[in-house]
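Worked Example 4.2. Consider the chain below.
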Amino acid sequence: MAWYHVKGESPHAASAHLFRNRRNELAGILVLGESMPCCRVEEGSVVTSFADVTPDIFTSYPLASTDTEHERLIRQAARLAPYTERFFQEAGIGPGQRVLDVGSGVGDVALLAARLVGATSEVVGVERDARSIARARSRVAEAGLHNVSFLQSDMSHVVSDRTFDAVVGRFILMFLPDPVAALRSLSQLVRPGGVLAFHEPSYATFLAASAHLPLWSAGVTLIQKSLQLSGADTEMGFSMYRIFQDAGLPPPTMRMEIPLGNDPEFLAWVSDTLRSLLPQIQRLNLSLEIVGDLNTLPERLQKEASKSQSVVPWQAVVGAWARKPDN
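Applying the procedure from the previous section yields the following structure tokens:
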């Protein structure tokens, strides 16, 4: 940990947690209280005002906001929907509740939550990317839903005149430089007895289950390395047990599920994700040699799966949920 002096503040008013940025260099995350966004600053600098630093809570987010990536996310969400729905129901999310979905993307988790809580309840999605918000709002309108709205904001800036019954998210904590601070801040928006429920991955489990498939494993390894070098925690799934407690919440109830399949759409996940990550892979100077030509990768993955006469494991999805204490 490093401390930075902010003019007009005491030395202990600001703290910076070191993390790895896109170039895999150590950078500082300046945190001015729980309600302020995180920013990247150079070590030893003196910040005279918040305008002197660039808001950067998601600098490490490696996936672009393109139409192609949006379509990939929608296909991925369709595959994950049964697992997330079961998990949310287990966490007690249901009719009549007011739900906050953080890191909404193109709206899939918010749409799922809306079905669970019913038309007379409310789901608010928070997403910082304008293009993703536009796509999410369009999808809500197409679905004819009137109980879902979206707020373009950093999750640390959410303001509500009423508390929520639940805060949910999927594959979002893994991209945060300080997930403990994020959970602590979000818990302030939840009523006593309300639920915080998150779905996050475990790539180590994913790779262990993929050992019998060399090409599939190579693709997953490249995805994992790209995410890790971009600052993401690819083991956030299991880390949530500690993170929930560090954020002042009870030990979470947890479950893990691994989707299995071998149909072409299932197998396309690796090549589709690598295409979305390609600009980041190139910036990181990573080699595609271990997977070969991305144009032929789907066919080669299908051939490998067929030859193995086995199902192919997907990313292990770990769910963690806990209720906010009454006191």
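Confidence is low (pLDDT under 50) at residues 1-59. The chain has two domains: 2-55, 67-323. Compare this with Example 4.1 before moving on.
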